[in-house]
UniProtKB/TrEMBL annotation:
Protein species of origin: Sphingomonas astaxanthinifaciens DSM 22298
Domain FecR N-terminal: 19-58
Database matches in InterPro entries: FecR, FecR_N, Ferrdict_sens_TM
UniProt-recorded name of the protein: Inner membrane sensor protein
Domain (FecR protein): residue spans on this chain: 113-201
Pfam families on file: DUF4880, FecR
Length: 314
């Protein structure tokens, strides 16, 4: 069933997110509703839409008294003509269906996955003025009514947590708690990295309680027995949001992976160049415009191959 009539026309026009969320909430609880693709597209169109939906769905408890009241009304009415039974049955059935659908759907909304394509960036609104920015080829999972639990599955996410609410972050087997801060979290295979730009982050809050301060980074592999912060490259946290990539003694494989994620171009590195390291800053606009020009900065050939670009020598 595609959007039509008053609700459909309104939802296809710009409007107050709360009004649109309420209309979607009513329509999606109709037993005949099947426009889930349209609903998903509306949620993904603007972070404010998901926030509004959360607020509407959070009122699920208000549905239960409504259902009980309507059931009581029908019982008090007693026997009714066949002509009226359909309408009155729809009233109660619709309320019950709405309540049951809410009870099923709302827990799922407490956990949502958001992903970006290579070369894409996306800003996600959290509660209390907090936000995070996703780099390309990134996948995260949000949970909690206030979106205060975030798991970074892969890629890079920059957390800008200016609000009072604490946000718990998981990446691999590492848990993090912010202490009023701005920091970047990266995940690549079994490797995780945290770079703090402002404030501080507490890693492994239930165990080692390792503090990572501004200007520091933590690099670790799943299962690591020890967590040790080190100095981070200046300006490295969220550099990709400013059109740059900052590296400190990085392998060409790491450089290629970062370029691929941030530009959307198919960069890769020759295995034979695995020992080569790079320290410096790359401009993303320049890399997109002329990938071959990276050769002078990296000190290795950068050649087109198979629709992409290969760093390093054979």
């Amino acid at each position: 069933m595609s959007p039509s009539g008053e609700y459909g026309d309104a939802m296809n026009q710009p409007g107050a997110p709360d009004d649109e969320a309420l209309r979607w909430f009513v329509r999606s609880n109709d037993p005949e509703f099947d426009d889930w693709a349209g609903f998903t597209a509306w949620l993904e169109r603007d972070p404010a839409h998901a926030d509004a939906w959360h607020r509407i769905a959070a009122a699920e408890a208000d549905l239960l008294p409504v259902v009980a009241e309507e059931q009581s009304v029908v019982q008090d009415l007693g026997p009714e003509p066949d002509k009226g039974r359909t309408r009155r049955g729809w009233l109660v059935g619709g309320a019950v269906a709405a309540a049951l659908a809410a009870l099923v759907a709302v827990p799922a909304l407490r956990s949502e996955t958001i992903a970006t394509r290579p070369g894409e960036q996306r800003t996600i609104a959290l509660a209390d003025g907090n936000r995070l920015v996703l780099n390309g080829d990134t996948s995260i999972r949000l949970a909690g009514w206030n979106r205060d639990k975030v798991r970074v599955e892969r890629g890079q996410a920059l957390f800008d947590l200016a609000g009072k609410d604490r946000v718990a972050v998981e990446v691999g087997d590492l848990k993090l708690v912010d202490i009023g801060t701005s920091f970047e979290v990266s995940r690549d295979g079994r490797a995780s990295q945290v770079i703090v730009a402002e404030g501080a982050v507490l890693a492994d809050p239930d165990g080692a309680r390792v503090r990572i301060d501004a200007g520091q980074q933590l690099e670790t592999l799943d299962g690591a027995a020890r967590l040790r912060p080190t100095a981070a490259p200046q300006g490295a946290a969220g550099a990709w949001t400013r059109g740059q990539l900052v590296f400190l003694d990085a392998s060409l494989g790491e450089v290629a992976a970062q370029l691929r994620r941030s530009t959307g171009l198919a960069f890769s590195a020759k295995r034979a160049s695995g020992a080569r390291r790079f320290t410096g800053t790359l401009n993303l606009a320049d890399a997109r415009r002329d990938p071959g020009a990276l050769s002078a900065l990296l000190g290795v050939p950068v050649r087109p191959a198979g629709g992409g670009w290969v760093l390093g020598e054979d």
